[in-house]
Amino acid sequence: MAAPTPTTAASTAGILRLRTHATRARLATGLRRPGGRPATALVRAAQPAVPERVEQSVNTIRFLAVDAVEKAKCGHPGLPMGCAPLGHILFDEFLRFNPKNPAWFDRDRFVLSAGHGCMLQYALLHLAGYDGVTMDDLKAFRQWGSTTPGHPENFETPGVEVTTGPLGQGFANAVGLALAEKHLAARFNKTDLKIVDHYTYVILGDGCQMEGISNEAASLAGHWGLGKLIAFYDDNHISIDGNTDIAFTEDVLARYEALGWHTIWVKNGNTGYDDIRAAIKEAKAVKDKPTLIKVTTTIGFGSPNKANTYSVHGSALGSKEVEATRSNLRWHHEPFHVPNEVKRHWSHHVDEGASLEAEWNRKFADYEKKYHEEAAELKTIITRELPSGWDNALPTYTPESSPDATRNLSQKCLNALAKVIPGFLGGSADLATSNMTLLKMSGDFQRDTPEERNIRFGVREHAMGAISNGIAVHSPGLIPYCATFFVFTDYMRAAIRLSALSESGVIFVMTHDSIGLGEDGPTHQPVEQLFSLRAMPNILLLRPADGNETSGAYKIAVLNRKRPSILALSRQKLPQLKGTSVDAVAKGGYIISDNSSGNKPDLILIGTGSELEIAEKAAEELRKDGRAVRVVSLVCWELFEEQSEEYKESVLPSEVTSRLSIEAGVTLGWEKYIGQKGKAIGVDRFGASAPAGKIYKELGLTVENVIATAKTL
């Protein structure tokens, strides 16, 4: 079917979008649902004539997207063409930002969860005056080194808050951003001075709605009453495989209402400008719950032959269809043209943004005078400046200190850090008493107690990780942690990967890190996760062996704000080892004991976590037989690889080929450190249900087996 011309769009959009589902019929007629429950709010205002300037601006956005995708010969033009009216109204009339300082603290946050439609965001950033998105950048869409990559990346493009693309992740990030705003507002706002006061807006599509993470995140947002979170659902009914009727027919608004959201339906997102405005105003008036605005649009609006089809979702229109679309929308301009009238109009955001920030700076100056302590605390969150001597709060241990599980030692670190770092907060996926992550000095972050710092995520690992990413990128000094059993990183791997990619310094506290958890068996015993996560770029995996290494791991995690850290922690008790060090953890690998001289041991035993104790005990026995044995803790492979060649040689001298590693995980990867002549003791199978000691014995992770294997080298 041909796309509507501009003059008939309002009348034909409904035909293009006609569905026969009873739920849609009830919504369209305003009827009550069974049981007398009121139907969702429905915006159906009469449409006045659209000012020429608005239509010019909207078409500018559309064709910047069309032209960029066409030049790149790849991309997703459909969403920008359909969402251009929404994008224009949101950015031009509602969003508060300063294009010359994208990092201004009290700006509104915008997330494009449907990240494939990123040319919508790039076009808006360019028009609004962001220096990092020039016309040349738009023309370099999807090219090497450009600030306009194929999906939004916060580390590449000023004005992009989070990295999106994997569907649903951005929506969960937005929940984290809104949580951060609510938390900081509750902690720092005063009756006479609101110093934290901004909204989080997010656009998500049908694909985001289908992904399970969005439901997890929406459930939490409703539970927490995040009233400053406004989500726009681009309801265009098209995904890669075709019409969403083939797999997605639920009543999305009814689901969100059940999750505690306020919902609105804008039936005509193509030309219903006033309806969109009214919906946003209504959403902002609702203070006690988040709002989902379903905006029904035509994907690829204006394209005569491809609108409302899957072919416009993820492919360039092609030169003939581009020209047909130009003719259809009466856009008689060369590619990448921005009319002077549009430039003049959008230019007001530069002065307006500067004024907004200046006004906030004046307000904050007053705040500093009246509330000096609170202002100083908030400054550390805004600037990432850690308090002097913060790391002195971390506990230290001697070999005489009591044995303990590193998950328990972790809790001591968490509570010590929360007392000295104002932006430290987090929680667990319904495992706080097993992960040992509760902050004893604080209550629970809830709808009516948002100032508290314990976050209850419930059994929602995937959303937990993505929400934590949102918290981390909200403000440089917010340091979120989240926790579950190590094996369940598989539930949240996509969020962990995006944390690494987007440089979000989340601390992932992962307990029950091996077969050492015992009787729960192989479903809960991680074996491949250590290597799997070590393979991920820009992330630190730390597996501490005792109290000092646990404190050292937290020190590293706090200092690394541009990359996340995973702490793999034991359920079972471990001794406090002689030779471990808080500061040495920063090296990634170091010598904890050695009876050799001249950097020429007969044998090097390498261990991590709970197996370092086994390596040390085996070394003690081997030394009794006259062997020179070095024991190395390789607590973090990534940090060790960052050390100088001289340092690495001092720990693992290349001339010493008799090397043996021991770790309760797959042996894959250890060849890098043990070499061709070394051996690795590990777990290259799934575990078993039995007491931990029995499993260790049956699988060969014992002092006796280390000694026997060492004697073969």
Mean pLDDT: 93
Question: Number of helix segments?
Answer: 27
Roughly how much helix do the residues carry, as a percent range?
25-40%
The CATH topology of the largest domain is Rossmann fold
According to DSSP, the number of beta strands is 22
The structure class reads: alpha/beta
Q: Could you give the topology of this structure?
A:
Layout: H1 9-16, H2 22-29, E1 41-43, H3 52-72, H4 78-94, E2 109-112, H5 118-128, H6 135-139, H7 169-188, E3 200-205, H8 206-210, H9 212-224, E4 229-235, E5 238-239, E6 242-243, H10 252-258, E7 262-266, H11 273-285, E8 291-296, H12 319-328, H13 340-346, H14 348-370, H15 372-383, E9 404-405, H16 406-420, E10 424-428, H17 432-435, E11 444-445, E12 454-456, H18 461-474, E13 479-485, H19 493-501, E14 507-511, H20 529-534, E15 540-542, H21 547-559, E16 565-568, E17 573-574, E18 590-594, E19 603-607, H22 612-624, E20 629-633, H23 637-641, H24 645-651, E21 659-662, H25 671-674, E22 679-681, H26 692-698, H27 703-710
Parallel strand pairs: 1-7, 2-3, 3-4, 4-8, 7-8, 10-12, 10-13, 11-12, 13-14, 14-16, 15-16, 19-20, 19-21, 21-22
Antiparallel strand pairs: 5-6, 9-17, 18-20
Task: Describe the fold and architecture.
- By secondary structure, the protein is α/β, with parallel strands linked by helices.
- The chain folds into three domains: 291 residues, 3-Layer(aba) Sandwich (Rossmann fold); 180 residues, Thiamin diphosphate (ThDP)-binding fold, Pyr/PP domains (Rossmann fold); 125 residues, 3-Layer(aba) Sandwich (Rossmann fold).
- Helices cover 40% and strands 13% of the residues.
- It contains 27 helices and 22 strands.
- The strands form five sheets. A seven-stranded parallel β-sheet has the order 11-12-10-13-14-16-15, with helices on both faces. A six-stranded parallel β-sheet has the order 1-7-8-4-3-2, with helices on both faces. A five-stranded mixed β-sheet has the order 18-20-19-21-22.
- The longest helix is centred in the middle third of the chain and has 23 residues.
- The protein is elongated, with a radius of gyration of 28 Å.
- The N terminus is likely disordered.
